[in-house]
Amino acid sequence: MKALVMKGPRDISVEEVPDPHPPPGWALVKTVAVGICGTDKAFYTGSYPLFKKPLIPGHEVSGIVVSDGRLKGRLVVSEINFPCGQCEYCRRGLYTHCPYRKTLGIDFDGGFAEYFIAPETALHPIDGMLDPVLATEVEPLAAVLNAFTQYPPEPADTVAIVGTGNLALLFAEVLKWMGLDPIIIARPGSRKSKYFTSRGFRVIATSEVSGYIRENTPEGLGFDMVIEASGSTSGLDTAIEIARPRGIVHLKSTPGSRFSVDLTRAVVKELRIIGTRCGTFREFRKAIELLSKGVVKPAVTSVIDGIENSVKAFEKALSEDEMKVVVRV
C-alpha cells in the first residue's frame, strides 16, 4: 500500500509499505480521510521528537472497515489510544493512560496510508451521520470535551482562549453551545483571527488584553477560566498572566518543547492548571453527535485529494492562513 512515512524533521515521503495485518479483535480499515493536527506539524518541523522512527502519522482519521467482523462495511472514526485492557489503569477506567497502550499516529502507525488497523472497540460508526472529511474533526473535538468533562466552566464564567488554531476554534464553538461568550486572545497580526471574527467571537491581541481585563473583569484581576490552546511554548505564561486568583487554566498545547513560564505567579494566584489530552468513548460519542447536528462547526480550510499529495498537504498545513488541512485518500 502507499503510505506517508516520516523519518525525521521535514524528512517525509510517500512510499510503498506492506499492508498491515490486524490481530484478533482488531479491524483493517481503508482510510477515507485524514487530518493534519498540531502534533503532526510539530513532528514534521522537529519541535516534537518522533516516538517511533519511521512513523506513519495521522490520528484524525475516518475510514471504511474492510475486514470481517461486526463493523465490516461501516464508515468509522477511530479513537487513538489502544490500551491493554488488563492493567490497573485500564481496570480503573483510565484506559487513555494505560502504560502499555499504543497511540495511533504517535507511537503506532496511523492513518496517512491506504489502510490502518485498530481494535474494534476503538472504532465508532458514523455512516449516515457524518461526511468523512468532517469526521476528521471528531478526535480533536473529543479532546476538547474531555477538558470540560473534568473541569467545566460555571454558567456565568468569564472565559478566554489563548490561540487561534483549530483546537481554539473548537473550544470557542463548544463554549458558545454552552451559553458562554469566550474572548479570543491572539498574537498581533494573526491571520487565523478572521475565522473567529466571522463567527461573532471577539478577538483581542495579546498587547491589548491587559486593558480589556482592567475594564471588563471583576476588580480588573482576570478571567475565571483561561484555555491555553496556542500550540506555543509561551502560551501558558500568557494564560497564567490573564487568569484571576484561584482561576482555572486548561492546558492543551503539546508543542514538544519545554514551556517558558513564571510559576511563581501561578502559585501566588493559587491557580489550578489542568492538563487534558485525548477524549474517551463518552466524548467521542458526544463529539459525533455535536458535529452531526451542526451544533459545532469546524473550519476545514483545504481538502487535498490523494495520499500521493500528502507531502504537499503538510507544507500547506504550515501556512498561517490554514486552519485545518485534510487529505482525502
Structural account:
The protein has 329 residues and is an alpha/beta fold. It has 10 helices and 17 strands. It is globular, with a radius of gyration of 20 Å.
Which terms would index this structure?
six-stranded parallel beta sheet, 2 domains, 26% strand, Rossmann fold, seven-stranded mixed beta sheet, Quinone Oxidoreductase, Chain A, domain 1, single chain, 17 strands, alpha/beta, 329 residues
Topology:
Layout: E1 2-8, E2 11-16, E3 26-36, H1 38-45, E4 60-65, E5 75-78, E6 81-82, H2 88-91, E7 102-103, E8 115-119, E9 123-125, H3 138-150, E10 159-162, H4 166-177, E11 183-186, H5 194-197, E12 202-205, H6 209-216, E13 223-228, H7 235-242, E14 243-251, H8 263-269, E15 272-275, H9 281-292, E16 302-305, H10 310-317, E17 325-328
Helix pairs in contact: 3-4, 3-9
Task: Tell me the radius of gyration.
Answer: 20 Å
Largest sheet properties: 7 strands, mixed
Helix/strand order = EEEHEEEHEEEHEHEHEHEHEHEHEHE
Helicity range of the residues? 25-40%
CATH class group of the largest domain: Alpha Beta
Strand percentage: 25-35%
Could you tell me the CATH topology label of the largest domain.
Quinone Oxidoreductase, Chain A, domain 1
**Based on helices, strands and strand pairing, what is the structural class?**
alpha/beta
Uncertain regions spanning at least 5 consecutive residues: none
Tally of DSSP β-strands: 17
Please, what is the oligomeric state?
single chain
Average of pLDDT: 96
CATH architecture of the largest domain, please?
Alpha-Beta Complex
Q: Could you state the CATH homologous superfamily of the largest domain?
A: Medium-chain alcohol dehydrogenases, catalytic domain
Mass-distribution shape: globular
Indicate how many domains the architecture comprises: 2
Summed up, the helix count is: 10
Termini, distance in Å? 12 Å
